[in-house]
Amino acid sequence: MAWFHHAASVCGPGHIQDGLPNQDAVLIRRWRYSWLVVVSDGMGSRPRAKEGAYHACRAAVEAVRQCSFGCSDKTLIEMLYRCWLQRLGTVLPNDAVATVLIAWGHVDGRIRLLQLGDGAVLYPLGTGYAELASEGNRFSNETTGLGISRRYSDWQCHQLVITEPGQGVALMTDGISDDLEQLEAFVPWLITQLHHKGQRYSRRWLCRALGAWPTPGHSDDKTLALIYRM
Amino acid sequence: MKKFAAKTARAIPVILLADTSGSMSVDGKIDALNNALRDMVKTFANEGRLKAEIQLAVITFGGDRAEVHLPLTAAHKIENVSDLPATGRTPMGGAFDLVTTLVEDREQIPSRAYKPVLILVSDGHPTDRWEEAFNRLCSSERASKATRMAMAIGNDADTSLLQDFINDLETPVFQAHEARDIIRFFRAVSMSVTARSQSTTPNQPVLPVYDDVPDDDVLDLDF
């Protein structure tokens, strides 16, 4: 069995209208024995949000390179946070607040999931799919992230093993997850839609689908990454 | 992707807590409130739903208990709001409990909704054990995050309670001395909510601007 991945990110109509860039970031890295998928959403109200999200993705790469796959969640989180702060340099963390959603996998099927802030990480559970962080008590556009949170308890962490072909993990920013229905069926449907498409075509297909998001009034940037076994 | 995306815009829930005690029947206050409420419904209903859908609920407190006069409904679907009656005591605590229950209910107000707006309108002092209910509202996980605004009608209103109710220092308790002030308040709140619904950041409160009501719009009421 092999791992396949797809990802896309589009600027939201609200940001286009305000002349702002896409403040989401996505990164996928594949190595010989492991892989990493990171999605980050820069908090729109912060002046350096785009940089915050960009560096969150790169900091995750640096963190997993310095940690063993079996390290504790707290060790990984602290490493990621330190890498992010270091990458920011003179930029104030509070000016570059960003969520971070991570799936770190081993080729044998083990996966570690981490999430800080809003958005969604969907993973297989039983015969369906579950969301890593519940919606909790928040309202739309309320979130935390790197640069605000200083507590380990703000993070959602989970480990799982994917053994079956056709199972995967999807990470997405709140521009998608807040308007998403039928979570259980979404990932299997995505896998079916994307599996036979090449990287370039699948990105175009995803960009088109996200750009034509049908929910009235949607304004956020939208970023989606999918990795699955087949 | 279409079948997985929500078909309606995210909601901005607006919940009116209206004092309908007996004292509201004096000096045409309840009539002014009913007119202002009808205007507000009309304004919300005419608002486009491209960016956010304004929803309205009305909770009344008068007589023996508080009750839901209008369940949370998309404004464009509200065909008619029956007149609020004015009778009996002022069970404001009951209204606090009802609004807390409503905002905490994720079926009615899902997480994709923007922060609700709570508007408290009163001309008197509560007659029930309101303190515990108010504390529950202020300490609840979701209701505590709502934007809270208040209007004191006349000189007998418990302004210190209303002062405690509001949570936006830039929007102090509005003091209504006459019927036209009630209309001014509701117009300003309506404009503030509709401005939010058109904004790219609908969670950010928009300060209400209390414009004068044109003379030909003033109701002929003595208070």
Topology summary:
The complex is a heterodimer of chains A (230) and B (223).
Chain A: E1 3-10, H1 13-17, E2 24-30, E3 34-41, H2 49-66, H3 73-88, E4 100-106, E5 110-116, E6 120-125, E7 128-131, E8 155-161, E9 168-172, H4 174-177, H5 183-194, H6 199-211, E10 222-229
Antiparallel strand pairs in A: 1-10, 2-3, 3-4, 4-5, 5-8, 6-7, 6-9, 9-10
Helix pairs in contact in A: 2-3
Chain B: E1 11-19, H1 29-46, E2 53-62, E3 65-74, H2 92-104, E4 117-122, H3 130-139, E5 147-153, H4 159-165, E6 174-176, H5 179-198
Parallel strand pairs in B: 1-2, 1-4, 4-5, 5-6
Antiparallel strand pairs in B: 2-3
What does this entry look like structurally?
The complex is a heterodimer of chains A (230) and B (223). By secondary structure, chain A is α+β, with helices and mostly antiparallel strands. Chain A has one domain (3-229): PPM-type phosphatase domain (Phosphatase 2c, domain 1), CATH 3.60.40.10. Helix content of chain A is 30%, strand content 29%. In chain A, the strands form 2 sheets. A 5-stranded antiparallel beta sheet of chain A has the order 1-10-9-6-7. In chain A, strands 2-3-4-5-8 form a 5-stranded antiparallel beta sheet, with helices on one face. In chain A, β6 and β7 form a beta hairpin. The N and C termini of chain A lie close together (5 Å). The relative contact order of chain A is 0.22. With 223 residues, chain B is of the alpha/beta class. Chain B has a single domain, classed as von Willebrand factor, type A domain (Rossmann fold). Chain B has 5 helices and 6 strands; from the N terminus they run βαββαβαβαβα. Chain B has helices at residues 29-46, 92-104, 130-139, 159-165, 179-198, and strands at 11-19, 53-62, 65-74, 117-122, 147-153, 174-176. Chain B has a 6-stranded mixed beta sheet with strand order 3-2-1-4-5-6, sandwiched between helices. In chain B, α1 (29-46) links the parallel β1 (11-19) and β2. Chain B starts with 10 loop residues before the first strand and ends in a 25-residue tail after the last helix. Chains A and B meet through α5 of A and loops of B.
